[in-house]
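Sorry to interrupt, but I need a hand with the structure work. I would like you to pick a protein and set down its sequence and fold. Please put the record directly below this note.
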Amino acid sequence: MSGIKTPVASVTAQTEATPAVASKTRRYRPAKWVGVVVAIGVVGAGIGAASNPTSAIDVTDGTALQSHSRVLTVETIRAEPVSAFTAAREYTGAIVARRVSELSFERSGLLQSVQIDEGKTVAAGVALATLDTEHLKTQRRETVARRAQAASLLREMIAGPRREDIDAAGAAVESLEAQVELLKLQTERSRKLLQQNAVSQDDFDQFAFGLRAREGQLKRARHELKELVNGTRQEQVDAQQAVVEQLDAAIEDIDVDLRKSELRAPFAGTISHRLADEGTVVQTGQAILTIIEDSALEAWVGLPVDAANLLHVNSALGVRIEGRTFDVHVSGRRPEVDPATRTRTVIFRLDPSASDYVVHGQIVRLQLEETVEASGYWLPTTALTEGERGLWSCLVAVPDETHSSRRDALRVERRDVEVLHTESNRVLVRGTLNAGDRVIATGTHRVSVGQRVTSIEE
């Protein structure tokens, strides 16, 4: 303070000695500068005290130190170890109609008409399309005529020869017998005359050969008469019967082609695709229409083999389709694993009423609860803080060794953890946590590592 008083004294003395000078310098008023300097000194001392807690003790008598050493109260939970947890797994599948058929003709031909369009619902057995059948009808008429001819011949064989034919054959036999008797007499006389050299050898040979010829004709006539008397042989009747049956089969085959020239709905459903129009020459097996049995829908969902094996036939579950929940029952499981997804397809049967809301090909989601074996600790999501290098950490309150005399003296430490599973408001973690650790559940942004806290457990 001596450096400040000296200039003031000198200025005062100068003013008293030289009034003229004093009158000129009165406007500077040195007493006000002294007040400004003192005020600056006080402000500087206050700033120094605020920045230095130690100096603040001297000014505020310890009040600032008490504010700095205030202990924060935090909410903690005990870390309880678990060895397994139940997780809700969601699996995606598709709605599949029980039957989907591409309809086609079993023969080729000209497509004459298509009586149905896409999107139309049809009943089982309704005619959908037809082929031209003119040549089949002509072929059938020809085959029917041939069959009539063969059947007439068969009836004649079964009835046998008429009486008139038998009598005529008998008369022919009698005539030949008389001729044979005459030739025998002539041959005998010619032999006697030959012995007497009354006739030549040629004349005798003519009679002899003529007799043998007539005897052969007589034998044949007698055989034919016997056949007529006995009737037609059974073998001939059987052979003709086979001809008639063969023609019957040919007519039936044509009738089958005629029936198959008309395409009918194999079951009730909805037409989804029309693939050909009138005037097209279609080949055997070429798809004309596609029909879907939309009244009987199923949900096909691929599940891991272990999960699929746990589901039993007729067990009830629920599936979600476009935000709606539907009850389903397990209908069966496919016997093989899908080579692409390595899953086993489980087939779920939907109630028929579901067809009013869902269609073939929609996405279906099935949620199952599974028990997963994993060791860790459940923590609320609010207990996690972002750690280094993309990891996670949590804060725990441990006993403060520097204040061991106080029972509630705790200090904040960090624990690095790994997230194993996440649910709506909690996570399963593992890491440097220990069983029984007091994990700060909420307000982790208000505390820092090393800070003293007290705990309120949930």
